[in-house]
């Protein structure tokens, strides 16, 4: 009896193990036949005799090998030209930025010289200097030479701005791209032809005072942009410095910059209403010179007061960064500019003092922009 029971148990164990083995084999076969939904047509995993990972590779390796590859587009001529240039150092970028600032301010002074010598229409046409000639002719005399020389300086400004932009673009192919300089560099170069067109409109309009003012004010904006560019190039490897972290001090710096812009605009209105039109026959604004001069003087006094407030506020909070020092420089420039303005008014607008006053306007824009910048960012620290 016991032997019969033993045979029955052995038969049950063999039958159960065989069924389990068949079930596992069927399950493995169904998995092998199953394909992922994302598998491309014509590519299947092996269903028998599984291979090792090193011999067959992964599924992604098989798919990648079957997909066509698109070759990268060849770089254009401009890109190849930029890549051939040597990589500019941080010092080169700073020098180019300073050169941009100097040329932008210098074109204001030379433009003022054109007006003060009555050479605004020395070249009576644009883009030609005169009918049939791009350059000034000997018959046009000194006025033609001065106006044409000022036009040639536009190419100097453009060349410096172009060199600055190319240098910035060259850094994009290195491990230290200066993206923080791109917009300002492109703007400085882009406004060169725009300013040339505005200059041409001033000639076509026979030196309309409002167009001449626009020409001058755009130059002052570019001086402010170049000032920020110079400060950004002083950041080591483009690292963004820490913020000052005082919003109300930053707002006071911004207010100083806005009032500076208003004072410069009113100064341009005074010049557009005075005797130095650029040509004896050019029209003036028609505004009362005494009234607009008084309004301009009041704006300068307001600016000096706000700048003094910015200085002492910066000192009261511990002179964060360069804020107090930049405000002090701005006050010094404003006092010098105010003294020149008072002297030229008392002496009935001599040409030399008017020219110095225009240079002072450019310096005041630089100082106000730098003071505003100093209320936003702490000085950059160089590594090591």
From TrEMBL:
It comes from the Bacteria. GO terms for molecular function: metal ion binding; oxidoreductase activity. Keywords: Cell membrane, Disulfide bond, Heme biosynthesis, Iron, Membrane, Metal-binding, Oxidoreductase, Transmembrane, Transmembrane helix. Residues 1-58 are annotated as: Disordered. It is found in: Membrane. GO terms for biological process: heme A biosynthetic process. The chain crosses the membrane at residues 92-114, 148-169, 181-204, 210-231, 252-271, 291-312, 324-346, 352-373. It is a multi-pass membrane protein. The keyword Transcription does not apply. One of its GO terms (cellular component) is membrane. Pathway: Porphyrin-containing compound metabolism. The keyword rRNA-binding does not apply. PANTHER family: HEME A SYNTHASE. This is Heme A synthase.
């Amino acid at each position: 009896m016991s032997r019969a029971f033993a045979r029955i148990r052995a038969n049950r164990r063999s039958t159960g193990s065989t069924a389990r083995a068949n079930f596992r084999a069927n399950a493995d076969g169904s998995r092998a036949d199953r394909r992922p939904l994302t598998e491309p047509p014509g590519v299947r995993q092996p269903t028998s005799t599984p291979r090792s990972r090193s011999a067959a590779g992964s599924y992604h390796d098989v798919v990648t090998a079957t997909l066509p590859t698109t070759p990268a587009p060849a770089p254009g001529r401009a890109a190849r030209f930029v890549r051939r240039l040597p990589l500019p150092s941080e010092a080169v970028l700073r020098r180019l930025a300073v050169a941009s600032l100097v040329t932008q301010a210098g074109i204001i002074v030379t433009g003022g010289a054109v007006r003060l010598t009555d050479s605004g229409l020395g070249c009576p046409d644009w883009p030609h200097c005169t009918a049939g000639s791009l350059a000034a002719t000997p018959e046009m005399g000194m006025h033609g030479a001065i106006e044409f020389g000022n036009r040639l300086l536009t190419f100097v400004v453009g060349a410096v701005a172009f060199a600055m932009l190319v240098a910035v673009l060259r850094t994009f192919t290195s491990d230290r791209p200066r993206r923080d300089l791109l917009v300002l560099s492109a703007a400085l170069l882009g406004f060169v032809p725009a300013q040339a067109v505005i200059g041409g409109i001033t000639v076509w309009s026979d030196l309309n005072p409002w167009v001449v003012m626009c020409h001058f004010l755009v130059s002052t904006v570019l001086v402010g942009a170049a000032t920020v560019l110079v400060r950004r190039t002083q950041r080591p490897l483009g690292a963004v410095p820490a913020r000052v972290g005082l919003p109300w001090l930053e707002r006071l710096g911004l207010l100083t910059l806005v009032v500076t812009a208003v004072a410069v605009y009113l100064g341009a209105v005074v010049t557009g209403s005075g005797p130095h039109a650029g040509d004896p026959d050019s029209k003036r604004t028609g505004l009362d010179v005494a009234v607009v001069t008084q309004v301009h003087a009041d704006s300068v006094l307001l600016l000096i007061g706000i700048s003094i407030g910015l200085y002492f506020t910066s000192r009261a909070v511990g002179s964060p960064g360069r804020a107090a020092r930049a405000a002090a420089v701005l006050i010094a420039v404003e006092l010098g500019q105010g003294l020149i303005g008072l002297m030229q008014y008392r002496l009935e607008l001599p040409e030399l003092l008017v020219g110095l006053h225009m240079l002072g306007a450019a310096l005041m824009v630089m100082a106000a922009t730098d003071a505003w910048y100093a209320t936003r960012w702490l000085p950059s620290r160089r590594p090591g």
